[in-house]
Amino acid sequence: MHGTVKFFHDMKNYGFITPDDGDEDVFFHISEVDASSIAEGDEVEFEQEEGDRGPKAVNVEKA
């Protein structure tokens, strides 16, 4: 999937991605990011899995 980082909390190392297909925002943790840094507005590719509290992004890479 493709999307844009909507929010990222540097101190807590988590954020949300808005998918391009219009689905609801997807949670991600920095441990799933294949990059040295990530910021709001970055375009990303990711896979989506069902987590304990809803959808979560895994294998997140900058596009």
3D architecture notes:
This protein has a five-stranded antiparallel beta sheet with strand order 3-2-1-4-5, with no helix packed on it. It is mostly beta strands. 0% of the residues lie in helices and 57% in strands. The protein has a single domain (2-62), classed as Beta Barrel (OB fold (Dihydrolipoamide Acetyltransferase, E2P)), CATH 2.40.50. It has no helices and five strands. The chain has strands at 2-9, 14-19, 26-29, 43-51, 54-62.
Keywords:
five-stranded antiparallel beta sheet; OB fold (Dihydrolipoamide Acetyltransferase, E2P); globular; 63 residues; mainly beta
Using only C-alpha atoms, the radius of gyration works out to: 10 Å
- The end-to-end distance, rounded to whole angstroms, is 10 Å
Large-scale geometry: globular
The total count of strands amounts to 5
Outline the biggest β-sheet: 5 strands, antiparallel
In round numbers, the mean pLDDT is: 95
What would CATH call the class?
Answer: Mainly Beta
Q: List the helices and strands in order.
A: EEEEE
